[in-house]
What we know:
Elements: H1 23-30, E1 36-37, H2 49-58, H3 71-81, E2 88-91, H4 94-105, E3 111-115, H5 121-128, E4 132-136, H6 146-151, E5 157-163, H7 175-184, E6 190-194, H8 209-214, E7 219-224, E8 237-240, H9 243-250, H10 260-271, H11 273-296, E9 301-302, E10 308-312, H12 317-326, E11 329-330, E12 332-333, E13 342-346, H13 350-364
Bound molecules: pyridoxal-5'-phosphate.
Pyridoxal-5'-phosphate binds at residues 41, 93-95, 119, 163, 167, 194, 196, 224, 226, 232, 237.
Amino acid sequence: MSKTPEFRNCLLQVETYVPGKPIEEVKRELGLDEVIKLASNENPLGGSSKAMEAMKKAIEQIHLYPDGSCFELRQKLAVKLGVDNGNLIFGTGGDEVIFYFAQSFFCKDDEVIIPECTFSEYETSAILMDINIIRTPLLADWNVDFDALTSKISNKTKAIYLTNPNNPTGTLISSDKIEYILNNMPENCFLFLDEAYYEFVDDPNYTKAIEWIKEDRNIIVLRTFSKIYGLAGTRVGYGIAPTRIIDLMEKVRLPFNVNSIAQCGAIAALDDVEHVNTSREVNFKGKKFLYAEFEKLGLNYVPSSANFVWLDTKKDSRYVFKELLKLGVIVRVGAAFGADTYIRVTVGTQYELDKFITALKVVLK
Ligand SMILES: Cc1ncc(COP(=O)(O)O)c(C=O)c1O
């Protein structure tokens, strides 16, 4: 066997991403006929039918490279958001935009601040750029400890990551607090504001993201077609930022990174207002149902602004995960986020939630 040539030391620190288990794998492994996946915050209603039609049609042109600039998608989305075409960058999922950001801006001796218990890819991208990461704690109610976070800001801080609503806790950070950070961070610092669950939020004062971009702040906002639009399998996400920031990130973007089927699906999904509205309704009803069931079971949960709920099972979450799996329900184990008794459950259809609650009662008995 050959010896692997020298590799970058930072790779030793990276924990390979472990995604939610695929349904077919669980069926195979456990010999189950029916498995329900409430582990990856996907849309339980599926993709929009308009997007499906558009994607089927797009297959006819599959021998051609996609539009590298995502022109039509860019134009349509820019109008919808009220920004310029140049304020957008598209990625193969929002994940890719997170990496483009890190590759574009992190220099030797930079530091980034990431609150604990959040989406893993900010940390991974920062590790791969070999820079220093400062983790700040959450409060007992799972909200970001704002004082702890702001106390860590220094002249070395190159980026502050905020996830709003946060994954896995579903908590929101107020616009006032975000604005405070924007007003008080050093000139050489970015705010990376991840709004992957933007469309699920039901709070009139939720975000001023577009305003902050128009004010030409050092901010990058992340959104995605993977969640409410139900297009997780096609992988389209986007960053919104002042053009001077986007122009630099475009230099690291891979040519043709968003495939043609994905582009067509995303364009059509933007027109499917009915699908978005129904998805929101199903989500609100589903959360209400879950909260009531958790209360009956005497379990604590964090009220969520997204399409998942963070639940304290009061047992080892790895055990709960495994036992739920045996009953055909896949959830996300909280231990992966450093929370030993918590699970994160995606809000599914009523049928899926009934099955989950029935299984949960068996496991916790
Ligand atoms: C907070 C957050 N940001 C970004 C993403 C990335 O989404 P995608 O790469 O599917 O667009 C996710 C996916 O789960 C997420 O939860």
